[in-house]
Amino acid sequence: MGMHILARRALLAAPLLLAGRPARAAERLQFDDLYGGWTVTGLVFSDRAKALAGQRATMSGFMAPPLKAEADFFVLTRDPLSMCPFCSSDAEWPPDVVVAYLKREAQPTAPNEVIEVTGTLELGSWTDPGTGFVSQARLRGAAFRVT
Amino acid sequence: MRAAVIGLVTALLVSGSAGAQVVYPLDRAEILAGSRFDLKVEFPAVADPARVRVTVNGQDHAAANGVFGGRAAEFTAREDGKDTSALMLRGASIAQPGTYAVTATDGDRTATVTWQVYAAPQPRRAKNVILMIGDGMAMANVTAARLLYGQMTEGRYRRTLAMDGLPAMATVGTSGTDSIVTDSANSASAYNTGHKSAVNALGVYASRSAGTLDHPKVVTLGEIVRRQLGMSVGIVTNTEIQDATPAGVFAHTRRRADYIPITDQMLAFAPEVAMGGGSASFLPQSTPGSRRRDEKDMIAAFKERGYLFADTAAALSVAADPGTRRMLGLFNLGNMDGALDRFYLKKGTVRRFPEQPDLTEQVSAALQVLERNPAGFYLMIESGLIDKFNHPLDWERSVYDTIMLDRTLKVVLDWAGDRNDTLVIVVPDHTHGVGIVGTVRDEVQAEQMRDKVSVYADAGFPNYPPPDARGYPPSVDVSRRLAMFYASFPDYYESYRPNLDGPRVPAVRSGASGPFVANERGNVAGAQLRLGNLPRDAEQGVHSMDDALLRAVGPGSDRLHGFVDNTFVFRAMAEALGLGRQ
Fold first, then answer.
1. Which residues of chain B have a pLDDT value below 50?
2. Phi, psi of B370, rounded to the nearest 5 degrees
3. CA distance A26 to chain B (A)
C-alpha cells in the first residue's frame, strides 16, 4: 500500500512542477494577515490585504479536495481540510478560505501538502457562476507549486 | 400460527427496504396524544386512487367521525416525478390514548402498522424541564472528568461531580430506524419528538421523498409546550446553533447539514432564548465570513422580532434587564471553543474570539430570561464539544468539556435549589468507544512511548494539578497522565501526549479522492503510527452503540430507571408536563 501511495503521489506531483512558479515580484500574504478583524458579525479585511488588492500576491496553504480531478480553480485553506467544500454541506467549512483561479487546469495535490499559490488578489463577495460557490477573497490568474 | 404468519408478512411489507409499502409513523411508534405528525404511505408503484384505502382500527382514515376528524390524506400519483404513488396527511393527530392499527392498501398490497398513543397518567408535575445533553459523552469521559475535577487519593475521590448526586439513573438505547449506531441529529430528534428516525434526520421520518424538507414531520416538545402550555423555550449550546443537537429542538429536515434552512426555521420557531456559535449562517452572503447564499441578514431579522442580541460574554448582562424576554446570543462564526482552549491553551479560535462566554455563563443568562415566563420553560442545554473532540481522538479536550457540562449542571442545580418544580435530565445523545486503561508515565525509561503506558499496579495515579476555582486542572501537560484510548480510529499517530498546539486532525485524505492516512503533523517525537480499524474513508473516530447513562432529578424523574429507549426520555418529559391529557 505504501508503494502504491508513493507512486500515486509522484504522478500527481509531476505536472505541478510545470504548473508555474510564483513570480518574484509577488508580495507574500499569510492567512493570518488576510483579515484584520474577526467578529461574530463578520470578518474585516486587513489593511495589508486591502493594500495588496489588485496586485500579485503569494499565499501558502492547503488545497481543499476539489470538485473534479482536473479543475481550473480550487479552494485554498489555512489548515488541511478533509472534505470537499463544493460537495459537502453548508456546515463546517472555514470562513477564511481563498479561491484560486488557475491560469490552466491542474491536477489536485494531496490535502496535507503545503502549497504556495501566486495570483492577483481580488477581494469582495463573488459567486462562481459554474458552482455557485461564494468567496470573499480570490487569487486570479494563479499558479501554484508544492513547497 | 396463522397470526404469526400474518405478522411475518406484515413485517416484510413494512420493512424500510426500497420497493416496500411503508407507513409513517413506522410500526410500534409511540405517539403522544394530541401531538401532530404527518401520516405518509408510500406505495411501491403507481397506485390507482380508486383502490387505495387507509383505515385506522378498521375505519376509513377520513371518516367524518374518525380519529383524524374527517381529514383525508392527499394522494400523489407520481411522487417526485417517479413511478411511485404516495399518500400524505400533514399535521395529523390522535386525541385518545390507545392502540391504533393503521392499514394501507393499494388494492394489491397491504401494510399494517400499530401505534401506541399515550397520555400523561397524571396532571402536570413539573413547571420547567431542563434537558442537558453531553454530546457523545461516553462513560470514560465522565470518569476522567471526575478524576480531574475530583482528584483521587488511594482509590477514593476527594469529591465527585454534580451529576453524581442526581438520584435517578437509567441506561439509554440510542439506535435508530436505520441502524444500530446513530448520530446526534437522530438522537436529538428522539429526545425532542419521541419518535425514532434515521441518521441525519431532525424532526422527520426518513422517507422516500427527494427534497430534504419534504419528509413526514413529527412535532417537537418545544413546539408542543409553547402551543399548549404557553411555555418559553431556550436553546443553549457551544456548537453552532444550527448543529444537530440544538436544531433538534425545532428543526424538520432529513439532512442535518441544511444549516441555512435550519437557521430560517429557527427564526420561524422563535425560541425565547438561543445561544451558541454559528453566526456564519446568519450573515448576508456579501459579508466576509458568511455561509449564506442569499442576502438575508438573519441577526437583523431576529432583532426585528424583538430579540436582544449578544455577541460577547459581557453582552450577556442584558439578560438581567427585567424587560428582556427574547435573546439571541452568537459568540463565534463557527463552533465555540472548548474549555481547555478557552481557559488554558488559548488555541482554536480563542484569540480571534476572545470574549466568548462559557456554557455556565450562557446558561445563567438563559435562566434569567426564561424564568420570567410564569408558564414555565423548556431549556435544552448542550455541551456539544465533548463529541467534537472525541471524534478526532482528543480525549483531554473532550474531558474538559465534560467538566464544563458538569459545572453547568451545578449552575442549574443552584438555580433550581429546593423549588422542586423543575425536571432536570443529564444525558449523552450517543457514546464513543473510549476507555481509561492506566497512565502514561514519562519517568519510565523507554525509547517508545507505548512502553511508558503503565497498567494495573504500575499505573498508580496521574499527577494533574488540583483544579482551579473554575473546576479544571490548569494544565494537562503533566508527567503522569491518563492512558485513555479510543476503540475506533483511522490511521493516525498516537503521541501519548495531549495536543497542546490545538485540536488534533488525526487523518487527512491522500490525493484528491484517495484513502485517509495519518496526518503527518501528528508525527512528533516518540509518536507511534497506528493503522486504523475503520474503513479507509473514515477520517476520524466514530460513534458507538454503547448505552448512554442518563441521570435526572426533579418531578417526573422517577420514570427514568433501568433501561429505556431514547424515545422514552421524551415521554418522561411529556408526562412530567402532564401532556396528552384531555
1. 1-18
2. -70, -35
3. 24
